[in-house]
Amino acid sequence: MTLLDDLGGSAAERWDPEHEATAEPAFTGPVIELRDLTRTFPGDPPVHALRATDLRVERGEYVSVIGPSGSGKSTLLHMLGLLDRPTTGDYLLDGVPTGTLPERDRAALRGGRIGFVFQSFHLLAQRSVLDNVLLATLYSGVPRSERRDRALAALDRVGLSHRLDFLPTVLSGGERQRVAVARAVIASPHVLLADEPTGNLDSATSEGVLDLFDELHRDGLTLVVITHDDAVSARAQRRVRIADGVLTEVG
Ligand code: ADP
Ligand code: MG
After folding, report:
1. Which of 44, 68, 69, 214 is deepest in the core (most CB within 10 A)?
2. 3-state SS, one letter per residue, for 61-127
3. Which residues surround ligand 2, an ion (CB under 5 A)?
4. Using CA positions, which residue lies closest to atom 21 of ligand 1?
5. Domain coordinates in residue numbering, the chain
């Protein structure tokens, strides 16, 4: 059984609008489409963190974005995650133009369609492993009756069933990141966004997290992994380089 099966259905089933309000047909275009998007931070001089960016990520793709510190990686991830708005240009998520949506609608899209994994895990220190994963279902459209079973299944799949009641503070870095991955996929997101997911892990532990990403990709999940690490980037099916706010395909 695959991880996404554990979480309630095959990849294809998950993309049906089954837990969305409308019955419109599932969108089959790119999950992510940036059109001539820029992000400039005001200042003297202004910082052009993203310059005239076009990017399409198709359903089921595993894309890495590699670039040095300061090249615009986090800015890009914040954009893709609807945590920031473009200065100019458009971002379509599942074909929905997001730039002018009110914050409430952006939050709903974020909660229902995007999973996040961050370098520093961002787990709630005072909550158990199980609660950390369960809390991610609150604004995600996962029916209440399914939440606990899905959290248990997700944690089982990342190998942490024996740590349900532990606080994140007593876990190893690799275990913390596996909790974060379970949390990121429990709501069956349309895309998983990871920002330097192995940045705080040793190389052996990193391998385990990257193996998990491979497995999610095989199950049909769309992944965008942002990294400065060539070995991490090389694990993706498609590689994009970012330098000084400009994206170019590698290879
Ligand atoms: P990376 O993640 O690749 O290290 P960032 O996307 O964080 O790069 O930053 C890209 C550029 O934008 C850097 O020059 C950074 O200093 C600048 N930057 C990022 N966030 C802000 C901000 N909130 N205000 C001003 N400048 C910023
Ligand atoms: Mg960064």
Report:
1. 214
2. CEEEEECCCCCCHHHHHHHHCCCCCCCEEEEEECCEECCCCCHHHHHHHHHHHEEEEECCCCCCCCC
3. 73-74
4. 41
5. 26-249
Ligand 1 atom index nearest CA of 71? 3
Q: Please give the distance, rounded to the nearest whole angstrom, from the Cα atom of residue 153 to the centre of ligand 2.
A: 31
Rounded Cα–Cα distance for residues 208 and 142 (Å): 27
Lining ligand 1 with CB less than 6 A are 41, 47, 49, 67, 69-75
pLDDT digits (tens, 9 = 90+) for 176-226: 999 999 999 998 999 999 999 999 999 889 999 999 999 999 999 999 999
CATH T-level assignment (fold) for domain 26-249:
Rossmann fold (3.40.50)
Range of weakest confidence among 15-24, 61-70, 87-96: 15-24
Put simply, whether the predicted model's pTM sits higher than 0.70 gets the answer yes
Alpha-carbon gap, residue 231 to 215, rounded angstroms = 17
Are the C-beta atoms of residues 166 and 131 closer than 8 Å to each other?
no
What is the Å distance from ligand 2's center to 73 Cα? 5
pLDDT tens per residue across span 50-91: 999 999 999 999 999 999 999 999 999 999 999 999 999 999
| Ligand number nearest to the C-alpha of 78 | 1
What's the gap in Å between 72 CA and the centre of ligand 1? 6
Bigger pLDDT: 136 vs 55: 55
Which pLDDT belongs to residue 25? 59
